[in-house]
Amino acid sequence: MSDQMNGAESLVRTLVAGGVDVCFTNPGTSEMHFVAALDRVEGMECVLCLFEGVATGAADGWARMTERPASTLLHLGPGLANGLANLHNAKKAMTPIVNVVGEHTTTHLQYDAPLTSDIEGLARPMSAWVRTGRDSRSIAADGADAIAAAKTAPGGIATLILPADTAWGEGSGVAPMPLPPPRTKVDDVAIAATAAALAKGKETLFFVGTGAVREKSLAVAAAIAKKTGARLLGPTSVARTERGAGRVPLLRLPYPVDFARAVLADVKTIVLCGARDPVAFFGYPGKPSRLADPATTVMTLATAADDLEDALTRLADRLKAQGVAPDLAPLQRAPLPTGALTPEAAGAVIAHHLPEGAIVVSESITTGRNFHALTLTAAPHDWLEITGGSIGIGPPLALGAAVACRHRKVVNLQADGSAMYTVQALWSQARTRANVLTVIWSNRSYAILKMELANVGAANPGRKALDMLSLADPDLDWVALARGMGVDGRRVTTADEFAVAFRDGLKEAGPYLIEAVI
Amino acid sequence: MSDQMNGAESLVRTLVAGGVDVCFTNPGTSEMHFVAALDRVEGMECVLCLFEGVATGAADGWARMTERPASTLLHLGPGLANGLANLHNAKKAMTPIVNVVGEHTTTHLQYDAPLTSDIEGLARPMSAWVRTGRDSRSIAADGADAIAAAKTAPGGIATLILPADTAWGEGSGVAPMPLPPPRTKVDDVAIAATAAALAKGKETLFFVGTGAVREKSLAVAAAIAKKTGARLLGPTSVARTERGAGRVPLLRLPYPVDFARAVLADVKTIVLCGARDPVAFFGYPGKPSRLADPATTVMTLATAADDLEDALTRLADRLKAQGVAPDLAPLQRAPLPTGALTPEAAGAVIAHHLPEGAIVVSESITTGRNFHALTLTAAPHDWLEITGGSIGIGPPLALGAAVACRHRKVVNLQADGSAMYTVQALWSQARTRANVLTVIWSNRSYAILKMELANVGAANPGRKALDMLSLADPDLDWVALARGMGVDGRRVTTADEFAVAFRDGLKEAGPYLIEAVI
After folding, report:
1. Which of A306, A429, B251, B400 could form a disulfide with A434 if both were Cys (CB 3.0 to 4.6 A apart)?
2. Distance (Å) from the C-alpha of residue B431 to the closest C-alpha of chain A?
3. Cβ contacts of A478 on chain B, cutoff 8 Å
4. pTM over cut 0.90
């Protein structure tokens, strides 16, 4: 078989054999052999995206849910460039992704044709691994190396550049898959030191993120905190948290610098477990970047790349916390609100109706400030967030999560300004009949920037500055935008209307959109 | 005054003093001092874009029409990344642009906050000049250097990275403006050699592009061709051509490789004037990259960076072509078609109704194949095209051209697949009341890729491959999409309906959209 196979087909077969069985694509001419190979290979699900930022964000969502790398197919340097912003988010989320980026045939590059650019240069800032294929017989092995690189703990972006001749030339069959290195086991010294710090009780903060906020690990961390009296807290944003009723109700560090510093003010020691020494999102005049008090000791139990489960188990053993039952959140359905559609009312509706097993994709910093707390006692669910600050991740992330988990409801709580960046995701949601309920918080402004303009000390903004932060004139009509891409929806303006729309929207089998004017 | 001014204000004032008096913005927190400074400085027009690819494409359109650099304001690495695809196009068009990219405060960078990335690394592939500001007192001088770099012939992208503290710290007033180096005068040897080649008549091709296809220079080039009998031709795509009735009817090299090679087959010498040795857009199995016959001699009169006007004048003098009147296109209004809305019928309607002084932005490779020829005898107009092959330039380019030329009608002839990349441009067109008539060719596919799939030898594509090239399921509803962003429009399905809609649409004072189902 291998001698009838071109490079593209050997690469696609290698990806599927390596467990990379989804491809979010936006192909062009140079990728046509790869596209043709998709026809001949069973087992690769292909999702067309009408903009590359949708493809990369969807790959992130898929991989966060499956814990396997997703692949993308992108068209030369500009196609990759369009996908970089959500690759930045995926990098910060430590999501494994394999990008396949088309490139001119090797012999064509010297002519500096219109689409020629420095693809490796573009890929490097967001990628842990970059390689340009050399020939059609080694391209499958390159693909196998890319998968191994993406899977190397804590997970990262691997970008394989595919010159067209390496796709159309003779391939060499499915390449063997190198094993990624195993996660590092934490040494006993770190266990002993952090155990001693945690044993000091409430002056110590157990700061847990990434893999430590999945149900099982988080329960162990909470048992340790209960046993020792140490405080338990999560970072401001985490790629994926398992939470809700029956799970540990983990609070998170607030986003505003002053609030975060107040939370950390009386902490003597921070023990990091899959999280990093907390820093401010932005630097501000006269405010420190590190959020902990300079006198606070910071020690690491385990980094995101380490074997967190093992570290937590050994730490619990040492602290004799294994028999301790952590406090778990009860199921408490918030009562349905009526009247004005405030952020609090919206949060109550969501917490009330959220179905068991839902996947919440939250990209609503200002409107959604309280959603996280309000859903602590909702039905158990996954919570996915933006971790890299590059807005426009929500609708693609929801698409990817829905493709990965066909039988779960995805709820995308989405700021309007951010949604416009990757609005094309709605079309792919319609095409794939993705089980996504999108709620657009239509406040018609970059609301966070109005706060930030004050934060940086720019008082009394004038007309021109305010125009740069406002999405009014004209108002976006989200129901029309959704319909334009084949997604049905409705607009609501009160808490009562929102409660009905949210309940109805959850019953839809495919994508549905609610524009919540707030 | 200078001692009351912060770095941001000194930079904005320097930009305005340097003739950079438009800013296409998509700001974030780190750019808030720049935004605040925009309030305090007269003379900078600000246009908010809801996605950075719109901002960079609009800057390109503005600068192509004004021949001065436009500026953009982008939010850190991901904001720049979102703008890179259209910066790629602008780079290939040799358009002068000054990007101002926000960055964390200098002291914040060491903490690797969520939005931290390698901004210089991202900027370099598309920029001729990249600099990160060091302090608030030198940031205005950095801005002046950026303008000079953007203006350096043939024109390029200058990217200035603005750490937040260089914006909020004390500024130093308006910086003096360094003069960009003058364009190089072509030496007499090149004039003599190319004159001798052109004198050989029709075996020589005079291949003219960039600055040589503006009305005045093109008339000189056509006079030379008429005098010598040499053939005159333009590249497949050019950033901006002045054409239509009363101007030289310049034909262009066809896009398909076989057609292009046929056109060049009997050429013994190619004389380049602001154009490059023609190469294929993509490499294909068994086809050469260079389009000219290997035996053809290629010589350069002048590159795009040289003083083309001077070179053409001296060449005309030497060839005694100064008194020759070139053949100019007559005004011939095509008759209005009826019946099916074929690409030919659409082109006839456009050629018939195109108003004098229109700016045509063409991004419709398949449907628009014949539009270029059909409009040769339309009313005089400018024709702007995609030169870098990164799709999604049309609606932003039209926005920028309309902001630059308030009293001219902009007609954006736009493929549907490409339009989806930067669909957010319609909102900025609505907000600025941009005088843009957009015609979406709704063929519901990446039509060019269906051809390319065959071109690369991938015969009999299957369901999966075809799904990756089709925009159907669901069909995009362009009238709904436009309404969602505050732009009115209608859908047409026949030549008769299109003729009425196009005529009516031209009468609108602001943006209007026609979805032409074709």
Report:
1. A429
2. 6
3. 484
4. yes
